[in-house]
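sorry for the late reply, my laptop died twice this morning and i had to redo everyting from scratch. anyway the thing you sent over, i finally got around to it. pasting the sequence first so we're on the same page, its 439 residues, then the predicted structure underneath. double check i copied it right bc i was rushing
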Amino acid sequence: MTPIEDIQEKAVARKLTEKIRDCYDQKFTGLLKISGHKTNLWYVYLMLGRIVWAQSSQHPLRSWKRHLTVHSPTFCEQTGELAPYESWNYLALSRLVRLKQFPRDQFSKIVEDYVAEALFDILQSSMLPYEEAGEISIDVQSKEAADMPFLMLQKLQSWEKAQQDWQEWQQAGLAKLSPNWAPTIKLHRELKDQTSPQTFQTLNSFANGENTLRDLSIKLKQPIISIARSIFPYVSRQLLAFTEVSDIADEAHHGFHPETMKELAPATPPQGSPRAALSTQGPVAEKQTDGKLSSEASTSKRSRSASRDKAPTVVYIDDSPADSRAMCSIVEKLGYKYVNIQDPLQALPMLIELKPRLIFLDLVMPVANGYEVCSQIRRITAFKDIPVIIVTSNDGIADRVRAKLVGASGFMGKPIEERRILKVLNKYIPKEARRLDTA
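ok and here's the structure:
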């Protein structure tokens, strides 16, 4: 690396690090649009200052499919190779996570590694000569959280991982080599003459110009640096070469439009896929008699379900299963649709999807307390007028004042009792909204 290249690379890395740190300190929600290379754009999405997604315009499908195969091979087997993109994209999997039909830890690992690759490519792009890359620019664009259908995942260390991977890539002397390039045989006969039969067979099996170094690392189950180093001697002798490859083809994918999130639009799951049998409320276990659901019971259940679906949604954000059960029995008895959100970090994206008429919010929770969550809710325009009721055993003046300062609509003491819940519902949900349409 020349002194000029070293200065350029460090400047870009420092600039991006500062932007990410500033976004975190300011609890920024929106995206960083990073450009410079003639053909590449990157988008880094942040929600309340935390990176939730990042993507390159180069290989979005190839990268996502690769990590999905690594961290969830069972899901890939179930969906099959011919499954359309809409059945295994981010939105499809995130909905399964919310329905507890896909492991959250697997999803988190897929996203972390996927995002880290995009961030790695940003760092490497800074190494391109100025004539090719131009000046790397970072455009900050604010967005409403409602326009960003991402899950807030805990311990997503993508930026740290990208920096570490890039440092190791440089130290291995591979800074000028893109992991998105695919090795291909340049001189077939000469390679066969100058290598052993076993080596030639090995190289011939994967150096076909179709698999990138990242792909090969997964297929061969070897570190990508080891694979790159083993190929270099043949490249230097001009027996092998590296070539750029396109993204994997998929008829359901009509291009990547990160700013409008078109690639995350809701999709109807294909028949036979894990999503096909799921409703928005999750799987329902029906009681059966002699192997068949009785007509009367089925009709009654459908009627109750239809009425409940039309009722206003009441959400309770609380990590206590006991309090949630108590709230559920009361709210559903009064004819409302009830949803419990146990993880406060998942509250915003779930609220955006649920569109509740009223939110009960527990004050004491791990990671983020009720005051912090309420403040975050009020940052979203769509929730500025939605009633948020703080629920707590601490019913002091100081607590009430602080709740008011963060935008809470009211304050309700514990224990969870029907008379308290009914009083709140009568006050904050208009009668016309509570009237169920049974037509």
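Confidence is low (pLDDT under 50) at residues 250-301.
thats about all i looked at so far, will dig more tmrw
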